[in-house]
């Protein structure tokens, strides 16, 4: 069966969505390890409860990003993954890392990319008075939050929303689309072809498939 390694830094609610899909035999593979750069990430507890190998690799024990990413590559490769899933892994990855796993490295980002790359997306969307927000799953390239999008889901901005309420709504969309994207990839339907994401051999549009 295809093997998945998930990288986290925090709560791991997206990890949980993937574990639940796996439990219902809807993932098309197995999460074989979860790696966190933070020892107190709650996602580590979720992993252990699901019987998945949970590894802590603290970034502050390494002198620079290249050294850390080198160590991270080694830990990941020990698990022989077909796919590496970033699920709230809050670190910028070095080009060496991105190149090593190019085409089998995906991320989820809380916005309708290419709109609002970077941090604090919910606050920025509210401040800009946007009516539409959402989440995107994309292949990771060297451009931060800039890789080809596979799938995205819209979350409307509602009257009276604050950062917390909007974030929660976007999270529900994330939990919907991440297992779908992982399943597509593990079934061999979703591929990165150069700088284009393809589903069943067809080029996906800029925002990927939109729900
Ligand atoms: C998610 O909202 C994800 O989109 C975001 O972190 C959160 C992690 O939540 N990722 C980024 O902002 C990446 N730059 P989770 O730990 O509950 O899955």
From TrEMBL:
Keywords: Purine biosynthesis, Transferase. Pathway: Purine metabolism; IMP biosynthesis via de novo pathway; N(2)-formyl-N(1)-(5-phospho-D-ribosyl)glycinamide from N(1)-(5-phospho-D-ribosyl)glycinamide (10-formyl THF route): step 1/1. (6R)-10-formyltetrahydrofolate binds at residues 65, 90-93, 107. Residues 3-181 form the Formyl transferase N-terminal domain. The record marks 145 as: Raises pKa of active site His. It catalyses: N(1)-(5-phospho-beta-D-ribosyl)glycinamide + (6R)-10-formyltetrahydrofolate = N(2)-formyl-N(1)-(5-phospho-beta-D-ribosyl)glycinamide + (6S)-5,6,7,8-tetrahydrofolate + H(+). Signal peptide: none annotated. GO terms for molecular function: phosphoribosylglycinamide formyltransferase activity. The keyword Isomerase does not apply. It is an enzyme of class 2 (transferase). The active site is at residue 109. N(1)-(5-phospho-beta-D-ribosyl)glycinamide binds at residues 12-14. It comes from the Bacteria. Its EC number is 2.1.2.2. Belongs to the GART family. Catalyzes the transfer of a formyl group from 10-formyltetrahydrofolate to 5-phospho-ribosyl-glycinamide (GAR), producing 5-phospho-ribosyl-N-formylglycinamide (FGAR) and tetrahydrofolate. This is Phosphoribosylglycinamide formyltransferase. The lineage of its organism: Bacteria, Pseudomonadati, Pseudomonadota, Gammaproteobacteria, Oceanospirillales. The gene is purN.
